[in-house]
Amino acid sequence: MKNIAIVGCGGMGSGHAIAIASGTGNAIWAELPVQTEGKLQETDSDLGDLLHLAGICDIDPDRVQWAKERGYRIYDCYQDILDDPAVDIVLIATPNHLHKDEAILAMRAGKHVLCEKPVMMNSAELEKVMAVAAESGKVFYPRQNRRWDKDYMIVKKILQDGMLGKVFSIECRVQGSRGIPGDWRAKKEFGGGMMLDWGVHLLDRLLAMVPEKVTHVFCDLTHVTTSEVDDGFKLHLTFESGLTASVEVGTCHFAALPLWFVAGEHGTAVIDNWECTGKIVRLHSWEDKDAKPILAGAGLTKTMAPRGDGSVQELPLPEVEYDNNELYVNLLETIDGKAAQIVTNDHALRVLRLMETAVRSSETHSVLAFETHIN
Ligand code: NAD
After folding, report:
1. Counting CB atoms within 10 angstroms of each CB, which of 197, 204, 299, 318 has the fewest?
2. Is 40 left (phi over 0), alpha (psi -120 to 50) or beta?
3. Ligand 1 lined by 59 (C-beta under 6 Å)
4. Which of ligand 1's atoms lies nearest the C-alpha of 14?
5. Is residue 165 left, alpha or beta, with left meaning phi > 0 and alpha meaning psi from -120 to 50?
6. CA-to-CA distance for 326 and 41, rounded, in angstroms?
7. φ and ψ at residue 359, rounded to 5 degrees
8. Is this structure's pTM higher than 0.85?
9. 183 CB under 6 A from ligand 1?
10. Contacts of 262 (CB under 8 A, 6+ apart)
11. For the chain, what percentages of helix, strand and coil (3-state, to nearest 5) are there?
12. Is the CB of 62 under 6 A from ligand 1?
């Protein structure tokens, strides 16, 4: 059993507090916005015997009151967490600009760190934190929880099982309509902006799924509702095999395109939403004897005419089984030397560097080379 203390008990920190105190871990998210009890899937690890909530610390009296009402121990300040010998792990869930100093202080105080995404504001910060992790021998773990999203798990399985033949294009996106939240996320100095907020999730997953170097990057950051930070972006990546990926985050979309649109030489997969409705359409035969031109708008087309029955087949998306709590469990096993870190710091560094290249691409309106110098 390891004791974990949380610094920053806002939206995410309070979710962690409930998840850990109840022993249900990420299974609790399925119950939002009720946030009272989680439901474990058969495949989910029960964290009850593995992780204990030592307490929380927050500078906002309302958040402290919230935690008190739930019976959680309150640390008056961050130093009190660091001084508590019972605390094994510090979970950092404060705004992004605080992550670096909090992580370094924790590891120097002999604590392991689970750090919310984006782990750092930039790659230079992460390099410093990785150096402290190496010198202190403590685990620093990036919390890229969206590796365990069902939609991502499905796409990963589709690719791994070769269900679409050779994949030549991957689109993934999230589109909302509420603009950028008016809190610290709207301020540059606090690590705001959607590239750091959502971009880090989408790029973490994409790079974890495609085992190839990225050769070229082109990005347009958007400023539809804000000027100080980006409120979204469109990013185009080319991998060394020629595979391309389009990654998009939008916060001013009142209708949404599918979360995923994956095209292969023998099939196409679509995932519409987080409920994971969607389909795979698989090619049986290129030949389509019934092909006839259709009237399309002001003209005729055979190229774009739907295929006749028989040359393609519609299939449901594959079922996936996974452990919602694998990240927490992997953190604990990494600390005990029983497993390798699933979300590695090298990977987090690669993602931060990619995001930095994307921002430069947007600023210079140019296609930039990436990773071509790495052997
Ligand atoms: P939030 O504003 O809701 O919560 C942040 C909390 O930190 C607040 O309660 C604030 O009072 C507290 N805080 C600020 N400075 C502090 C300090 N010096 N000491 C102690 N507490 C302090 O923000 P949030 O949405 O919970 O985001 C927090 C972190 O979690 C961010 O890094 C964010 O990117 C991340 N996050 C991750 C996910 C995910 O899915 N992994 C989702 C949401 C947020």
Report:
1. 299
2. beta
3. yes
4. 26
5. left
6. 12
7. -65, -45
8. yes
9. yes
10. 155, 158, 159, 164, 167, 169, 170, 171, 268, 269, 270
11. 35, 25, 40
12. no
| Predicted confidence (pLDDT) per residue in 151-188, tens digit | 999 999 999 999 999 999 999 999 999 999 888 999 99
Instruction: Give the Å distances, CA to CA, from 61 to 10, 64, 76.
Output: 11, 5, 11
Q: How many residues does the chain have?
A: 375
Q: At what angle do helices 11-22 and 61-69 cross, to 10 degrees?
A: 20
Task: Reply yes or no on whether the pLDDT at 40 is more than 70.
Answer: yes
Q: 11-46 burial, b for 16+ CB within 10 Å, e for fewer? A: ebbbbbbbbbbbbbbbbbbebeeeeeebebeeebbe
Burial class from Cβ neighbours inside 10 Å (0-12, 13-18, 19+) for residue 128 reads middle
**57: Cβ below 6 Å to ligand 1?**
yes
